[in-house]
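User: I'm putting together a small comparison set for a docking exercise, and I want a reference complex before I start. The sequence is below, and the ligand is heme C. Could you produce the 3D structure with the ligand included, as structure tokens?
Assistant: Of course. I'll restate your input first, then give the structure tokens for the complex.
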Amino acid sequence: MKNVMKSTLVVMAAMLGVCSSQALADDAAIARPTFYKDIAPIFQRECQLCHRPEGANVSGMIAPMSLVSYEEVRPWAKSVAKSVQTKSMPPWYAAPQHHGQFENERTMPDSEIATIVNWAKSGAPRGNPADAPEPIVWPETGWTISGGSPDVVITFDEPNWVGDDVDDLYQNITVRLTEEQFPEARWMKAIEFKPGSEVVHHIIAFAVGESEDGGRRFGMLGGEAPGTDPTTFPEGYGVLVPKAPTITFQMHYHKESGPGTGVWDQSSFAIEFHDKPVTHPVQVATISHGAFEIPPRHPNWKVGGAMTFKSDTTIMGYMPHLHLRGVACKYTAFYPDGTEEVLLDVPTYDFNWQIFYEYKDEGLKKVPAGTRVEFEMWYDNSPERAAAVGYNSERPVAFGGPTWDEMDLGWMNYTATKPVAASN
Ligand code: HEC
């Protein structure tokens, strides 16, 4: 499950001879940093994936400014320093105990943070342009999986009008692929979404089609919401896309309503396929309580759900999904031998960043049959937070689609640890 965006960057940086993150990470902070020599290489690694003129649309979250040239960065020096010091940037919400576990981790060594802070404090000097690293070259297609050339791109047949009166809307849009377009079932290795407008709150994609034995085959391909990276499975792991599938985009649109607010949306996603059949078909579990009710004005309401794996299981990653009142969540494994382990602790959940925490390929989580996984979530329905975030704290809140209702979904990608015969 390598994070393609980050690895693309690292590969390119390596090709261009930019100093490696390892070299810098172990050094102490640089005392008199200049932009070209010390800051630009850090920004290339840590920020430019999103902060560049055609920045990665990390699932609808488009970074507000480019942090490539000195001229672009200079006006932001102070806020940049603040954002890294408070760790609001780069965005990452797993507790420090998970450092090193997840492929798409976005954290910076303290020495880099201190270097940026030193630089801003000393007046954000430019330095010598001759010290600048080679600029990063990004794939021009706008896709990051498959080195920028995915095997297939699926998009709405025609643009979809999200009208002036819409504030919160769930809508299913289907795209039928013919047998000519998609003649055989194939195993998905990676998927990347591209929202077609700024009012896309999330997309979940399903594929339905005929299986080899004539039955129906149904599969969740993936989902994205603000802040989700593309998903890439390791060799041997994947999701089957049936031949001639009917694809459903389950769209959630969210915006202010009113005259002139309507927009056209034509979202899409891209897939990279495995060359070979897989031995580990990946499934998605949803841990959820569903029937909770958060009392009015309650500042710390807890909700929980659980599931038990019946056979030895390999967990690939997690994606917690709460709405505006969600402030923290945690996945814990209770093993059959009586021990327990926190699998993922998100002490400060941020609705704006729907992050899929993907284990590194070499560190997939293997759990024995009989393991119970609990998903706990905490919600803040206090008037203070309501005033800051913008919701009504004076009513009880239950499960519901609109962002002003709540959700309690603990998604988990997993597969049986025992390989299956490689076939379609
Ligand atoms: C994964 C994409 C991503 C990465 C990586 C990233 N940013 Fe951001 N950044 C954003 C987005 C999106 C916003 C807008 C946030 C919002 O609207 O809530 C933002 C906002 C900001 C802001 C505005 C103020 C704030 O703190 O919200 C600053 C400053 C900033 N980023 C600096 C950085 C720096 C410095 C780095 C690298 C060390 C970085 N960002 C890495 C996506 C990213």
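The first helix runs from residue 4 to 15. The two ends are 21 Å apart (CA to CA).
User: Thanks, that's exactly what I needed.
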